[in-house]
Amino acid sequence: MNKFLCQTALSFLMLLGFGSACVAQINDQLQDWASDVATAYAEEFDSEDLTFLIEDLLAIARNPININTAGREELERIFFLTDLQVENILYKRYVNGQFLSIYELQAVEGLPLETLKMLEPLLVFGKGDNKYRPLRVWGDAFFRSEFQVERTAGFIQNQEGGRAYMGDRFKVYSRTEMNTNHGFSGGTIAEKDPGEPMFSDRIHGLDLMTGYLHYENSGNWLSEVGVGQYTASAGQGLVLQSGMPLRKSTMVTNIRNRKASFRPSLSASEASGFRGGYASFAFGDFEVTPFFSLKKRDGRIKNDSILTSLREDGMHRSLTEIEQRHNTEETALGLKTQWSGKWLQIDAGHLSYRLNRPLVPDQKPYNQFYFSGDKASNSWVSYLLSKNNLLFFGEVAMSGYSEIAFSNGVLWGAAPGFALAMAHRYIPKSYQAPLAGPMTQSSSFSGERGWYTGFKWELPDRWVLSSYFDYYRFEWLKFRVDAPSSGFDWLGNLEKEFRNEAILRIKVRHREKPLNHAEDMNENKVVKVVYDQLKLQYRQLIGDGWQFTTQGQWHFVKSDEQNENGKMLSQDIKWKNNKLSITGRFALFSASDYLARLYAYEPHVLYMFSVPAYSGKGARYLLLVNYRLLNNLHLWLRAARWQYSDRETIGSGNQLIDADKKTQLTFQMRVKF
Fold first, then answer.
1. Largest CA distance in the chain
2. Is the pLDDT of residue 128 over 80?
3. Segment 132-152 mean pLDDT
4. Helix, coil or strand: residue 621
């Protein structure tokens, strides 16, 4: 504990030192705006790390995009712009010449006033000259600590005087990032999870310590260089997609993978992402990017030589988990080439993947076609063709020079205010790509084919209707699905924006998924399980600084032998002024089974996103306070509690809590410089 307090004090003094060297300040309202936009997007996902969204928005706001020189890839970084809106902006600029102000963008088809308001802080309207710009340096530094009040079994001493977890109960996080307007940037991150030892003979320093250096200069022959931790993406993710993959959501026409091909990263996820380097070389319309990665992975090893699985959680608390820490080397080496024409863009590449010991999973009927061995080889070709109001995109990928997978789609601006998206995917069961992450129904995507259709319709009087239908079929068995099977997913979403600063959202989702009828039988019958969900949300701004959000959710699950249901009602109240922001939530929930669990986005400290599962019966309490102590010093304090009424203990094993409540405290400090 004394060690923790000393490290906390040291981090605090270091952060204040950075703050005193402040050379540029970012408007606090811009920070709040970026958080609100990312929050609205996060609510459409069940659970993903959405940090990259707010990171990109803030990076753009500090160094805005020149709308008169930006290409498609630059504009695609603004995630709330649809593909058709990006195309319409580029077409309008091609026809009419440079934009002089934000007001001229009103003439772009499909850009409503609300979108223009969000765009304004992200754009500049220069002439694209190459005059010398005085050097500007900006950045921020974070320190965060989390603590769970109730002690879990892993922290309780046993009869021999020992305990399962070897570290203290605090989660510690530190992050520093710097940027310049001349293309140079860099950052570092360090983190330890609760129960992980630090500065010990088993883990030197903190469990996660990494960072990056990055240089970017569009228009130069050496257009980009990155060293350290980074993410990589290509095509529709059939070969290469690190970090968060594309998911189905109420943004129904956003089905094309728009993640940047390569970008530096300060993600705290220890399993995903690359650690190595890449460099992009531009030759006119061509760009060539070699890349490599060499990182340590956690693995479960049998007989001192065979790897049975790779661990994804990044936890190193117990002796067993520490022995599995960084015991496997993962190497990735590849080359990506891209040609960009007026209406057509093509990229192709090859990726070689290798482990330093063979991966041999324990054989189960459903995992016979999972990746195994110590190496894999994949190639891909992807395309993007835009013409008028049509956008065609797709990828063809190959595994081991034999199995071919493909994903193709089209976006069509059929009429003003109406957009249509259609896509088809086919991935053979023998297709293996260890670093892939395409938009599919199953996370184990091999053996899946599907057809997706979605539309968005802007109706009169500020009504917006959107919907998608996704049919999929599995060629082979899946986990808890002991036969080839099929299912479908339908979503309908209706939004209404009122003139009194209020928004109403109604979301309905119907799914039919295959599942084993009885797991305890030698031969399981596969049946259809029907999931029906309804979500109502009403948000209202009242007076100066007050915001009220009321939300109700219902979830019904039916099969031959089950009839489960879940429901939740929550109320959020937010108040803020120039220095202080306070957000509170009270929620009541009841779910008869884990199958009927509900998900809801929760307010959190900056750069953290929480979408927990509401399961069982009880209440949820949350309080979040953000205070601007100085212009460059921000503080956050968050308290969140689960209070269950249907149980006396929570969790199991080393995570068992001998109580009916679970309380999490979070403190965060940020210094801008």
1. 79
2. no
3. 89
4. strand
How deeply is 442 buried, as exposed, middle or buried, from its count of CB atoms within 10 A (0-12, 13-18, 19+)? middle
| The CA-based dihedral angle spanning residues 350, 444, 235, 183, taken in that order and rounded to the nearest 10 degrees | -90
Query: Is the pLDDT score of 1 beyond 90?
Result: no
Best CA proximity match to 393, nearest among 259, 255, 286: 255
Percent of the chain with pLDDT over 70: 90
Please give the angle made by the CA atoms of 549, 550 and 551, to the nearest 5 degrees.
Answer: 120
Residue 72 gets which letter from DSSP?
H
Give one word for 90, left, alpha or beta, with left for phi > 0 and alpha for psi -120 to 50. alpha
* CB atoms closer than 10 angstroms to residue 541: 14
Tokens at 566, concatenated = 């879940």
pTM: 0.88
Cβ(188)–Cβ(245) below 8 Å: no
Asked if 440 and 433 count as a contact pair (C-beta separation under 8 A), the reply is no
3-state helix, strand, coil split of the chain in percent (to 5) is: 15, 50, 35
**Above 90 in pLDDT, residue 144?**
yes
* Chain segment 331-374, per-residue pLDDT in tens: 999 999 999 988 899 999 999 999 999 999 988 889 999 999 99
Contact present, 397 and 435 (Cβ < 8 Å): no
Beta partners for 413?
none
CA distances from 636 to 587, 602, 667 (A): 22, 15, 6
β-strand partners of 450: 425, 472
* H-helix or E-strand spanning residue 189: strand 184-192
- Distance between CA 572 and CA 549 in Å, rounded? 5
Query: Which of 409 and 362 is assigned the larger pLDDT?
Result: 409
Average pLDDT, the chain: 87
Report the SS3 class of residue 101.
coil
Structure tokens at 348: 């192709």
What's the rounded Cα separation, in Å, for the pair 623 and 619? 14
CB of 380 closer than 8 Å to CB of 238: yes
CB atoms within 10 A of CB 129: 6
The pair phi, psi for residue 595, each rounded to 5°, is: -60, -30
Which residue type sits at 219?
G
* DSSP category for residue 362: P
Structure tokens at 541: 């701004």
Residue of 340, 427, 441 lying closest to 378 (CA atoms): 427
Q: Which of 145-154, 215-224, 638-647 has the lowest mean pLDDT?
A: 215-224
